[in-house]
Specification:
The chain is α/β, with parallel strands linked by helices. It is built from 18 helices and twelve strands. Helices cover 41% and strands 14% of the residues. Helix 9 crosses helix 17 and helix 17 packs antiparallel against helix 18.
């Protein structure tokens, strides 16, 4: 398994070692006496400097470094003050939902991709103002993650896409060529197993929504999807998805991946020791994890970062994620909040934030900066962002995804066929609904 709870993932994302941060008490953030905004109205944000106080709630390690950006913003906006409150990541969604209910919201938040559907289902956020940014500047997958019924509610801040990570030295010794498609991945794994790697491929065998997301990626590579484009119906048991699960489970039942691991903390040691030789749809943060574990430069000598193999018809797909700025409908200073979000989306700020925290740009133009050139890892992430596969943008996905993961385990443990498992998942998902 190479995915893990979001609170831990945010602290290590995109090639950064864990960043220490101390959470501030959640005090002084609400303004219950303010007159609530109806929300949903089209607003125009001018080019004048931002003014007043902006109450910002942050989560994860990202917040600890944000004050460096505040100082830059204040150079052209001297009359604005940004007051930041760090909320523990595992509590953020529930605290934000409670604040929306109570009318005690901050002016601005950033929400990670996996939290956005649930937060947006509250109806507690304003649409992105007309003309604030150009959606064409952003990667489609990260932009669309905060779109509901054709309306955008978030300005993307950063984005990442997963990729295939493999041991070049082990592959060379086994005579295994870099896998380009599903057949190539199986051949690659078979040769590595013959060469001594016990379980050549590390898959997401946690059997929860992260396993379901990996299946969604392989489904996309096979021309399938978990949900219809208009988010109106589940398509979990489509023929394309069943074929994708048969392929995924077959890698395990044929001994090319373990049904029991590695757990996320074990992924680096398993691969470092050669027990695994490749991480399928692995996060780019593994680059620094391997160097942290084995010494600086180890990854350059031992690892390749390449696009996920494509499906039988040449379709590509990668898990993706990131974060977006969102303004609550009851914000007391929407003007300054949206101006900060717009400023953070400018290419120069996107590059600056990458240099500070290594979070990768959501804005395409920022990737042309010299700071992001000359790296196979970055080049692969950039290309993979073009084919990023979103989690279904409905508030029940976590519940449905966990249920799909449980059905996936039944297949690899020999208790069900892929067709039966996804038929059952489809039935349960229809009972759960979309929740929006």
């Amino acid at each position: 398994m190479h995915t893990y709870p979001s609170s831990r993932r945010r602290a290590t994302m995109l090639g950064v070692a864990l960043v220490a941060s101390s959470a501030l008490l959640l005090t002084g953030c609400g303004r219950g006496g303010d007159t609530p905004s109806a929300g949903g109205d089209s607003t125009t944000i001018d080019d004048k400097p931002a003014e007043g106080v902006v109450e910002l709630w942050t989560q994860g390690a990202d917040g600890a470094k944000l004050p460096e950006m505040f100082e830059e913003f204040k150079k052209d906006n001297p009359d604005v003050e940004i007051k930041m409150t760090e909320v523990p990541g595992e509590e953020f969604a529930s605290k934000m939902t409670a604040a929306i209910t109570a009318g005690t919201v901050p002016d601005l938040i950033y929400a990670f991709t996996e939290n956005q559907p649930g937060l947006l289902a509250t109806g507690g956020f304003d649409p992105v103002p007309d003309g604030l940014v150009d959606k064409g500047d952003f990667f489609d997958a990260i932009w669309n993650n905060s779109v509901v019924d054709g309306v955008a509610y978030g300005v993307p801040w950063y984005a990442y896409a997963n990729l295939l990570i493999y041991r070049t030295d082990l592959a060379e010794a086994a005579g295994a060529e870099e896998p380009k498609d599903w057949d190539g991945l199986r051949d690659f794994a078979e040769k590595l197993k013959a060469g001594g790697s016990e379980f050549p491929l590390a898959l997401a065998v946690n059997y929860d929504q992260y396993s379901a997301q990996q299946l969604a990626v392989m489904a996309a590579q096979n021309g399938g999807a978990m949900i219809s484009d208009d988010l109106s119906e589940w398509t979990i048991n489509s023929p394309e998805n069943v074929e994708a699960l048969e392929y995924w489970a077959g890698l395990i039942t044929d001994g090319l991946a373990s049904p029991d691991g590695p757990a996320f903390l074990d992924t680096v040691p398993w691969s470092s020791q050669g027990k695994n030789a490749a991480i399928v749809d692995g996060g780019p943060w593994f680059a620094s994890w391997f160097d942290d574990a084995n010494g600086a430069g180890w990854g350059d000598e031992h690892l390749a970062f390449v696009p996920n193999p494509v499906g039988p018809s040449g379709d590509a797909g990668s898990s993706m994620g990131g974060g977006s700025w969102m303004v609550p409908a009851d914000s007391g200073n929407k003007d300054a909040a949206w101006k900060f979000a717009r400023w953070m989306s400018a290419p120069e700020q996107q590059v600056k934030w990458y240099e500070i925290f290594k979070n990768m740009p959501a804005v395409k133009a920022a990737w042309d900066d010299p700071a992001l050139q000359g790296s196979a890892l970055l080049d692969t992430v950039r290309a993979s962002l073009e084919t990023g596969v979103n989690r279904p943008a409905v508030s029940t996905w976590a519940q449905v995804g966990d249920m799909i993961g449980q059905q996936m385990e039944k297949v690899v443990r020999g208790g069900a066929s892929a067709q039966d498992a996804l038929d059952e998942a489809q039935k349960q998902a229809e009972q759960i609904g979309m929740g929006n």
